[in-house]
Write a structure and sequence with these properties.
The N and C termini lie far apart (49 Å). The protein folds into two domains: 151 residues, NAD(P)-binding Rossmann-like Domain (Rossmann fold); 151 residues, 2-Layer Sandwich (Dihydrodipicolinate Reductase, domain 2). Helices cover 31% and strands 31% of the residues. An eight-stranded mixed β-sheet has the order 8-9-10-7-11-12-13-14, covered by helices on one side. It has a six-stranded parallel β-sheet with strand order 3-2-1-4-5-6, with helices on both faces. The chain contains nine helices and 14 strands. It is globular, with a radius of gyration of 21 Å. By secondary structure, it is an alpha/beta fold.
Length: 324
């Protein structure tokens, strides 16, 4: 907690990520509204949703149904946007002249890479920090992993990530996580595609080669059958599996003189909770420090555009092939 006055905040979008996955009492908070309400350095002033659920009346802040009314009536420092990607560009453009100190957006910034890059440039020219809610970028656990792999403390032999519900919609989490952990993408090659939820956004399996991981496999599942987002990393000294909706880390270590025949084997060393459920609070910590001039965004508009560019490369190569 800082000594400065609480930052006046609002959430645009009253859906799941904006509000509905939480109640005002939920600890830890999972949504933008819950984070603003519970973080000591913010003051949640309002939620803006054109078609509000009755449950939004339970939140201790004003409820607006029109963005113009929100911006006219409230003097805000920061706004979070949690709306479908098709709606986000026009809202982001409107917020440029609203006197905000920072804006938090959802992924991707826009349906197309060109639109996303244009928004990135507009915010850079306006001098307004534009942060993006990719939760793993704010996780201390993943930051520790990234340091370990990027410095060579531990060498990643291969990694596999399972996902569904569209390469743009959900796969962008996997692509961006790969870049966070292992550096920039050197090669990206599509292998298979399935239109599991969105016909215009198929889930695409791909092979990636990165600076610090020569084999990264992005495996597309069918989200109509079940939801799964899991990461499996095998290194020269162990194994890390993130499972249980991102909330559990299972670890193994290389042990000698074990197995049949005796030799080196990967042996389980247990499991522990991740810090995934704290990600919204970590995001707001970072946004506060960005506004205070003490830090750079951990996930900026430029970061998400670079990940979107990798996705576009995969989609371009897959177009007309691989069942797309």
């Amino acid at each position: 907690m800082t000594n400065r006055p609480a930052l006046k905040a609002a959430v645009i979008g009253g859906g799941l990520m904006g509000v509905l996955m939480d109640t005002p009492e939920n600890v830890p908070p999972l949504t933008h509204a819950g984070g603003f309400l519970q973080h000591p350095d913010y003051d949640l002033k309002a939620i803006c949703e054109p078609h509000p659920s009755p449950s939004l009346q339970n939140w201790p802040c004003k409820l607006y149904t029109a963005l113009d009314d929100l911006l006219r009536e409230e003097k805000l420092d920061i706004v979070s946007i949690a709306v479908p990607k098709e709606q986000q560009p026009s809202i982001l453009t409107q917020l440029l002249d609203s006197g905000l100190q920072a804006v938090i957006a959802e992924k991707p910034l826009a349906p197309t890479l060109a639109e996303a890059c244009a928004l990135r440039d507009l915010y850079q020219e306006a001098g307004i920090p534009l942060l993006v809610n990719l939760p793993r970028r704010y996780s201390l656990m993943y930051q520790d992993f990234a340091k370990k792999f990027r410095t060579g403390e531990e060498h990643a032999l291969c990694a596999t990530l399972y996902y569904g519900k569209g390469l743009i919609h959900n796969g962008i989490h996997g692509i961006d996580l790969a870049r966070l952990l292992f550096g920039e993408v050197i090669e990206a090659r599509p292998l298979f595609a399935r239109p599991d939820v969105f016909a215009e956004d198929p889930s695409i399996s791909a092979f990636l080669r990165l600076e610090h991981c020569s084999q990264f496999h992005l495996n597309a599942l069918d989200d109509n059958r079940f939801t799964c987002f899991e990461l499996d990393i095998i290194t020269d000294s162990g194994r890390y599996i993130v499972t249980n909706d991102h909330r559990t880390l299972q670890t193994s270590a290389v042990c000698d003189h074990t197995g049949i025949p005796l030799g080196k084997r990967l042996i389980s060393t247990g499991s522990r909770p991740t810090d995934y459920e704290q990600s919204i609070m970590f995001l707001l910590d970072n946004a506060r420090d960005v506004i205070g001039g003490k830090a750079a965004p951990l996930c900026s508009a430029a970061t998400i555009c670079d990940s979107h560019a990798v996705i576009q490369q995969i989609r371009d190569k897959a177009r007309g092939n691989y069942f797309v």
